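Input:
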Amino acid sequence: MDTKQLMEWSDKHLMAFAKRYPVALVRGEGARVWDSDGKEYLDFTGGIAVTALGHCHPKVVGTMREQAATLLHVSNLFHIPQQIHLAKLLCDHSFADRVFFSNSGAEANETAIKLARKWAKEHGASDRGDIISMRGGFHGRTLATVTATAQEKYHHGFEPLPGGFKYVPFNDVRAVERAIDSRTAAILVEPIQGEGGVNIPDDGYLAGLRKLCDEAGVLLIFDEIQTGMGRTGTLWAYEHAGPTPDIMTLAKALANGVPIGATLATDDVAQVLTPGTHGTTFGGNPFATAVGLTVFSTLIEEKLPERAARTGRLLLDRLRALQKKHPSVITDVRGRGLLAALDVVPPVGTVVGACRERGLLVLTAGDNAVRLAPPLVVDEASVERGVEILDRALAGGGA
Ligand SMILES: Cc1ncc(COP(=O)(O)O)c(C=O)c1O
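Output:
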């Protein structure tokens, strides 16, 4: 079926929750994808920071085939070996002692909020439940996580929103200090804001939050759904800054595209979830966690965070050179590892469209930023080629 027919049916039968690009992708390999008309693209969206190992990585495909043919799903009423192994691996490579698996980033954050509120109630007054989050952040689309996301554009029409959320500016320790009171349960923050525009806080910001939390007996939650799994050049983005959280949430790249979410916590926090207090049907099932196990082991064995740091330096160098070449079009370049953004003067949709026409898929972020999140396995030649296409798109040259 051709793209035109697919788009007609899409318009007619799907809820229009996203403004979709006029492309239907049907096949992928590494950092490349092909559309239903056979056109090839360089994929610097990575499924929005999901396909860390690239499309159709042989080890991931192998695990999926094997696990689907062995045991797809059983309930959490039973012990699930793949889930146990993945939890142990995540704990061995992070601050955490325990993991709860779910199906998405929003669900991982819901669990984090529930954990923090229950912990706070067991460690203080019964009215302690407020979550302080940062303006410009993004935490998901369920009612609680969309409320934790400060921007009103995400709330509009969905009121009444759940209570117990407060917002402060990002990268401002003093603002958090002023906002903390006897009702505060936790601070929720992305170590680097992804959807908000790849906003990197000052050195010392996360350490400042850690200190405040320790002094006030408040939990610190890092949402590493976009930044985790090596994306920023270290396994977890919090490693750039030093302090560890009490709770961390993951999703996106954890199973390279198979839906999964994970909420990691210290023993002290995790013990508030006793049997019957929380649950999930699909979360942590044999299929998703077998794939997660393969993805995470491959990430560690092949040292992909280090590779992302190296390739990311090249990407950032090239983007800075591009800014020098087009100073009236690119006003800022930011990035860490393979998560990068450039603020552009023309409407960002025009730039994204011009890239797409020339065979490069990129994302938007914040108000007017082009965001790049290629797979962590992307090679240097593809980075050079991607930046060349971006250059031509910004200059308005031919494909
Ligand atoms: C930092 C962050 N948290 C949470 C989410 C929500 O994840 P999901 O779409 O899997 O619910 C996202 C998605 O973009 C995200 O970037």
